[in-house]
Design goal:
The chain is an alpha+beta fold. Helices cover 17% and strands 31% of the residues. It has a single domain, classed as RNA polymerase II/Efflux pump adaptor protein, barrel-sandwich hybrid domain (OB fold (Dihydrolipoamide Acetyltransferase, E2P), Beta Barrel), CATH 2.40.50.100. A hairpin with a 4-residue loop joins strand 4 and strand 5. It holds the Pfam family Biotin_lipoyl.
Length: 123
């Protein structure tokens, strides 16, 4: 189960050889994955939505909710941008937000950008 969560966070099985060079595993990702396993309720992983057939990556311009802050369902979480347009990603459920990506980073489509936990997670 831990390996499955690590793949969600890093796109790998956790091994050094298969990790993309531009998205290294952060030590806190492992801690958060372990906490997600121990969480009594479901933790939702928010990913970059597909916005076009030819778009392969987006920039996370800014977070609209502070890390650890509480969001309601359908509340805007982050502002993302492609080469042609900016758009917001909304929360699919309510809970506490924990970043996976920092503002200013460029990330591939379908990559995890944050977690929404129904309960506070230790940092």
């Amino acid at each position: 189960m831990l390996k499955r969560l690590l793949r969600l966070f890093t796109g790998t099985s956790g091994s050094q050889q298969s990790r993309p060079a531009d998205h290294p595993t952060r030590p806190d990702d492992v801690v958060r994955a372990q906490q997600a396993l121990a969480a009594p309720q479901d933790v939702h992983v928010v990913t970059v939505p597909m916005v076009g057939a030819t778009v392969t990556q987006v920039s996370l311009n800014k977070w609209l909710v502070p890390e650890g802050g509480y969001v309601r369902r359908d509340q805007p979480l982050a502002e993302l941008a492609t080469e042609k347009a900016s758009f917001e990603v909304n929360a699919a459920r309510e809970g506490f937000v924990y970043y996976r990506v920092s503002a200013g980073e460029t990330v591939p489509m379908r990559s995890p950008i944050c977690l929404i936990s129904p309960t506070r997670m230790r940092r």
